[in-house]
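# nightly structure sweep
# worker-07 picked up a monomer target from the shared queue
# config: single-sequence mode, recycle default, output format = structure tokens
# input follows
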Amino acid sequence: LYCFAGEIGLSGEIRPVNRIDQRVREAEKLGYKKIIISKHNKLNSNNCNIKIIQCQKIDEVLKLLF
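# output follows
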């Protein structure tokens, strides 16, 4: 299962969101195995069991999924 945390701009860029560490932890608690976030988000901690995938454009996400 994938989880997504980001904002998509009109030109297809994936923008960062606030409190990304909290969102990643919550996705992990809910049972997600992978989360896709913006490449521009800075993670403070990486000690979790969820795989974090950072993408810059929506095209990258589509290639991952299909």
